[in-house]
């Protein structure tokens, strides 16, 4: 047992790693290390000191070797999502471009409110060897460097200038990552000399600590206001966001909706809060939503938004709701609870729903509920037809239908950026709670494979017999595919569906929908590509150690998917899809994009007028 005067002499890097390895969290009655390990690429900014410290704790904090720093960050995000923000991974990169490669991943984690610890190399604090390799010099401020670029995209930022500093910095960084209101990435800049400096640390600093995630109780007055407004509702609706799952409030949401008979719609991040067959699940809302959800959103007079930041794809750029609809926003973050003059209930979703339920004596009008359910039945019929194979070109929706019919209910589905998030959100029928990850908070191409790898690492710690299935377009595959190799090396099996439409087809669709001619999106329409040709994705994936095959149609895809499920290693299935035909045409709300007010093209001018014709529905905040 240590006393308050006991000390232990360690380097800064050794102290950081020892402290991390002694932080725990209780989940479902089991104590687990809060940090599940890390992703690392070593270089001159982290290999000698941080690398030395990590070498001795390989069992406690496993280090996964990344192929690209950006994809390491995506993998850490996928890991945190799978663990519902209860656990996190660190990423370590060398000084210079290794660290700057993590900027996009930090932005993704920030936008999605995900915990991630960035331990990044920095230049020497003494400045004696300046300028050093890969240093970005600022002639007017020598303290200002590449690592300062992370300040806008992390929730906590510090540069460790002395070994004693981590006594405050590490607990503050961890507190930020665990705070439901401020959750996001934390960044620690580690100068190369400071990493190796030693200090007599209090031994008590490294004692085992078990953390708990705060559940903030709402203010009783805010609950009372919300109850009064809900009691007045004739057409109430719940928007269930990703925060419902992070609060582990799915059961509370379900019970509240059933008790008060309030229809529920889901955001992109909130997909899989309810199963597809739940009678009060009216479908996904917004730009990539369903006709059913958007139809009741237009009519709802009181909207209970739970755990959502109400981004534009959810709100149809704030045209999805009636002008006089009143919003009650339950959110742990005050900033999100206050949006568009919502009546705020600042607090944990599960605690807040319990408080509302206890005080609320109300049931929604049966006619409103049955009307919403009829809308859902109509939408289900459309989806069934949309995903069915037939005498038509291959489509994203058909591939989604095949996988949906054959996967296990507990398999995890991943998509991000491009056209697939819309197609998965609209067409996927949720089989079990918390099984869908559509990354559209920052909409990052390249997350599909890397995020799936991180999710699979997390999944293997809880549900090792399940699969992670990722839908990936050819554009995203070309942008970031190296974690196929990572998954093979680490024996974390993925099933990767590569749906090849010959370029950036969804942006080509947006280009065409706004009156513009196809240009620089599909390979066939790039003026600097004299002879376009397709990539042999099967050969490429095979070269990275995966099993791979190409199929011609949805029927062959079904057989290949069965083989992928039976395989013990990462399996890539490639299918060509049509870039123009087969898109989901229903379910879309208006989305504000900038269109030219002046153009020589009549088609562009007409499209601008058509686009602007829906602006009158846009809420101005009240």
Automatic annotation (TrEMBL):
Family under the similarity heading: Belongs to the TPP enzyme family.
Domain Thiamine pyrophosphate enzyme central, residue spans: 223-356
Entries under InterPro entries matching the protein: DHS-like_NAD/FAD-binding_dom, Myo_inos_IolD, THDP-binding, Thiamin_PyroP_enz_cen_dom, Thiamin_PyroP_enz_TPP-bd_dom, TPP-bd_CS, TPP_enz, TPP_enzyme_TPP-bd
Xref: PROSITE patterns: TPP_ENZYMES
Compositional bias ranges of the Basic and acidic residues kind: 602-615
Transferase keyword on record: yes
Spans annotated as Disordered: 599-622
Descriptive protein name: 3D-(3,5/4)-trihydroxycyclohexane-1,2-dione acylhydrolase (Decyclizing)
Gene: iolD
Main EC class the enzyme belongs to: hydrolase
Gene3D superfamilies linked to this entry: 3.40.50.970, TPP-binding domain
PANTHER family per UniProt: 3D-(3,5_4)-TRIHYDROXYCYCLOHEXANE-1,2-DIONE HYDROLASE, THIAMINE PYROPHOSPHATE ENZYMES
Domain Thiamine pyrophosphate enzyme N-terminal TPP-binding per the UniProt entry, residue ranges: 51-134
Start and end residues of each Thiamine pyrophosphate enzyme TPP-binding domain: 438-574
Pfam families: TPP_enzyme_C, TPP_enzyme_M, TPP_enzyme_N
A molecular function GO annotation: 3D-(3,5/4)-trihydroxycyclohexane-1,2-dione hydrolase activity
Tree of life domain: Bacteria
Enzyme Commission code(s) on record: 3.7.1.22
Keywords: Hydrolase, Thiamine pyrophosphate, Transferase
